Amino acid sequence: MSINTYSKMIVETWGTVAKNNKALSVDLWFASSEDTLRKFGWPNVPGFEDESKSDKTKSKEKNKDGSTEIDNTSEDSKTSKKTPGKDNLKEMMRELVEQTMVFEEPAELSKEQKSFRTVTKALHFLYEYHLDHYNFFLKITDKTFVHLPRLLELLSKTTRKPRLIGRPDIDDETNVKFCWNGPGYILSKDLLAIVGPHLPFCLEDKSITEDIALERCLYNNAPTFIGCEDFTNGTGHEFLYLQPDDDVNWANVVHPERQFSDGHLGGWTFANSVIVSGVTSIETLKDLHKADDVT
């Protein structure tokens, strides 16, 4: 499973930079049903739990109006919930999230809609409970490497306003730029503050990809949204995405300063790329981490 391979390797490579240097003020959050806090020391976003694995000692039945009224937990277990243990706090958070995260769902979600729902649920949780804890929110997959110090240096020079930062492309329908979801994207705190309340109600057509769906959600609900932007003080190649079958370029990850030009991205190097996505193997994540230590 990915949580035990790529996610684990992220924690052991660039995740260690965040863990060992608290001055960076970077946290990792996993949109996963697994208890990543216990497994990796980094928390998972509540709301993705597998209901089939829920505590069998507790059962709930719902009235026709959807309210919950029957709780078969024992008096002893109810009393124990007052104890501020890790498990009890996690259960309390799960119930709180269930009460506040109301996402209307169609009977069946497409693959694209499921991907977008994962993003909106995670962002909505961060909006509800951690908006004041962070200035920027980076969304990436677990097959991505991040040069944290360089990323934070660029963000420190980024002016505070509603921003979506990433690798831009044009949405032909809205004529607004969206950010490629392959290499990920960054929402500023100011932008998440505006769109946060609307996230549960954003769901596009089944065929719309996650990145375009997010752009349209922002376009429809954030009046100040101007589309996806590059880093204003960057080179335009900070968000690097290579196809997994691009063996020629991936083979050169151990030569971070080597200049490449493939006709599409223009000139770029691994050393100058802040986000490197489409990683083909955990060995590549290790190589990027080693190269990052050198550069």
Characterization of the model:
- The protein is an alpha+beta fold.
- 36% of the residues lie in helices and 14% in strands.
- It has one domain (1-50, 78-295).
- Strands 3-8-5-9 form a 4-stranded mixed β-sheet. A 3-stranded mixed β-sheet has the order 4-13-10, with helices on one face. It has a two-stranded antiparallel ribbon with strand order 1-2.
- A hairpin with a 5-residue loop joins strand 11 (260-261) and strand 12.
- Helix 6 packs across helix 9.
- 28% of the residues are buried.
Number of helices, counting only DSSP H or I runs of 4 residues or more: 11
| Helical amount | 25-40%
State the oligomer: single chain
- Main sheet characteristics: 4 strands, mixed
SSE order and pairing:
Blueprint lengths: L5 H7 L1 H7 L15 H5 L19 E3 L5 E4 L3 H6 L5 H15 L10 H20 L5 E4 L4 E3 L1 H9 L7 E3 L1 E4 L4 E4 L5 E4 H7 L14 H12 L6 E2 L9 E3 L5 H4 L9 E2 L5 E2 L6 E3 L4 H13 L1
Parallel strand pairs: 5-9, 10-13
Antiparallel strand pairs: 1-2, 3-8, 4-13, 5-8, 6-7, 11-12
Family: Belongs to the glycosyltransferase 31 family. Beta3-Gal-T subfamily.
Organism: Racocetra fulgida
Subcellular location: Membrane
